[in-house]
Design a protein that fits this description.
Elements lengths: L2 H8 L5 H17 L2 H15 L2 H13 L4 H8 L10 H14 L9 H35 L22
Length: 166
């Protein structure tokens, strides 16, 4: 048995009672954030955090919604593919990065907030905050408990691979 496998076997999963608030956050975000913005945020944040489980899941979900492998890879490494993103998408992705790489109140400068509001409105900016918070929390749970991406249904081999553009 490998060390990572034995470590995984020893890790307790989060209790159902503890997961209830996470499921409420998930339901809130799904009801209020567009599928496209959700894909942008969940793909990028999961890639930044190195969460293999969530990255595989969100690649699968984006693919099911018609996103190409190239589009998925471009979003995951969007700073190297800025020209492929609309100004609104760039604002959402900058916002996701800023809320994931938190460094005090300077993490989200007024200019970035204003840009997100310009593209998604005041209410939309608040909803995007919750979407970023939700996926960051899911990433931390999956990483801590060593969720196995291979356990996900409906994956294709590319869903489990490092980011690459063909």
């Amino acid at each position: 048995m490998s060390t990572s496998q034995s470590t995984h076997d020893q890790r307790k999963q989060v209790s159902a009672a503890a997961m209830a608030p996470m499921l409420a956050l998930e339901a809130y975000s799904r009801a209020r954030v567009s599928r496209d913005d959700s894909h942008l945020i969940r793909l990028r944040v999961s890639a930044v955090n190195g969460c293999r489980y969530c990255t595989a899941m969100h690649r699968r979900d984006a693919r099911r919604d018609g996103w190409s492998a190239d589009r998925i890879a471009a979003v995951e490494d969007w700073t190297a593919n800025v020209a492929e993103m609309s100004p609104a998408e760039q604002a959402v992705l900058r916002f996701a990065d800023a809320l994931t790489h938190v460094d005090g109140e300077d993490s989200v400068p007024d200019e970035l907030w204003a840009d997100v509001v310009r593209h998604r409105g005041d209410t939309g900016a608040g909803q995007l905050v919750m979407e970023v918070v939700t996926i960051n929390a899911w990433n931390r749970i999956a990483i801590a408990t060593r969720k196995d991406p291979g356990s996900l249904r409906g994956l294709v081999p590319g869903d489990l691979e490092p980011v690459s553009r063909g």
